[in-house]
Amino acid sequence: MNLDIGGTGIALDGCGRMNCFVSHAHSDHVAALRAVGKSILASEETLALAGYSNNISPLKLDGVKIQLLNSGHILGSKQLRAELDGESFVYTGDFKLQDSLTTKGADIEKCDVLLIESTYGSPEMVFPERDFVYSCMAKWAKNNLERGAIVILGGYSIGKAQELVKLANEYLDVAPIVESNIEKACAVYEQFGVKLDRIPVRTDEAEEIMKHEFLSIVTPASASRSFCSKLEGIYNRKVVCAVASGWALRYAYSADRSFPLSDHADFNQLFEYVERSSPKKIYCTHGETVRLASELRRKGYDAKTISKASQMTLDEFSEGD
Ligand SMILES: [Zn+2]
Q: Is 143 in a helix, a strand, or coil?
């Protein structure tokens, strides 16, 4: 998606323009960092997590007031706020409003035009309180560790996995074993001040700990019953696994448990964001856009869906493919 503002185009989490905003380091948002010769607007943390801290030319726009607001999704995730001649635009990127163990919830500023992510845009997608989910996960993990089992928790390697490490530290007083791609992101979190006590796999310390029951943080694909069965054969010990994802509310996983712990806003948070930012015009993108736009219109908002290929023009509040 592209925003045209003051005669300049900016690609929003894409690479279709020379100027590109990268909201955060998840792989489906960083195409502009892989492209050659782009001017990039992104946080330092995003560049570090994505491994592109060098050779980036910073984006500057004459006459347009640009702000990056915290989006509360993962370390360094930002929203883009642009203002020209008193008209303001916000692109949320992926966001959540709740504070987590590693990330503060999103900032909300008033705007005229809002481009909002819609991952959980259906009314049934409402998460329990985050602290409650933490407690449930910790209790389940503790019970299994006390029974001598190996406990595997699965979450995305950037963001969720670090939150799970912190959960293990604070709720269980355990330093978990982490996979190497998770360790890479943990090191960046620490570089930016988030302390994470963990043990990288394939180190002597990890080998020693893995002779007994232990807790490990892995990517979601590895948190499956089939992987657990393999480990049971290797370690001759019971192995249990759980997945942490907002989709746990809707889908069954091939795991012993799944917990609705998400880095995205649920349906109520999406509505809260809209109410507090009080936009004149709303565009819904990424996810359950049709449902969210229709729910917003039912409440009297001027809301519609917008495709990823669209061009938005701030001064006209119009868009076209
Ligand atoms: Zn994301």
A: helix
- For ligand 1, the distance from its centroid to the CA atom of residue 165, given in whole angstroms, is 18
Distance 264 CA to ligand 1 centre (A): 8
Question: What is the whole-number distance in angstroms between the Cα of residue 198 and the centre of ligand 1?
Answer: 23
Q: What's the number of domains the chain is made of?
A: 2
Residues with CB under 5 A from ligand 1 (ion): 26, 94
End-to-end CA distance of the chain: 10
| Cα–Cα distance, 230 to 305 (Å, whole number) | 45
Choose one of 224, 244, 259: the last residue of a domain.
259
CB 177 within 8 A of CB 201: yes
Same domain, 80 and 201: no
pLDDT at 161: 98
| Domain coverage including residue 299 | 2-125+264-320
Residues 147 and 93 in one domain: no
- Concatenating the DSSP letter of every residue in 3-24 gives EEETTEEEEESS-SSSEEE---
Name the domain boundary from 223, 240, 259: 259
Calculate helix-pair angle for 160-172, 180-191, nearest 10 degrees: 80
235-292 residue pLDDT tens: 999 999 999 999 999 998 999 999 999 999 999 999 999 999 999 999 999 999 999 9
CB 113 within 8 A of CB 319: no
> Which residues, other chains included, contact 207 with Cβ-Cβ below 8 Å and sequence gap of 6+?
none
